[in-house]
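The records we work with from here on pair a chain with its fold. These numbers are not coordinates but entries in a learned vocabulary of local backbone shapes. To see the layout at work, look at the sequence and tokens printed below:
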Amino acid sequence: MADKTAIKGKRITGSDRISMGEDLKAKYEKGASIRALAEDTGRSYGFVHGILGESGVVMRSRSGHAVPSSARPNASIARTANRPSRNARTRS
């Protein structure tokens, strides 16, 4: 299951680094997550993220169930509804 193309902690340089970057880039662009790539290679999330950046990958936005504020018609009203206006604030 795990690719384990590199020993964890071993410095990857030169053509090995370029080759690993191309491999990770291809997998990431096919939909693999950074966490999955890190687990498969035995490297850290930060290492994989860095290699992808060096390889010129355009990172996907974070996933989740967040709804963009543009899709919520009253988002700005809800955010400020419980705050007093600037004029109503008292200075001490």
About this structure: Residues 14-60 form one domain. The mean pLDDT is 78.
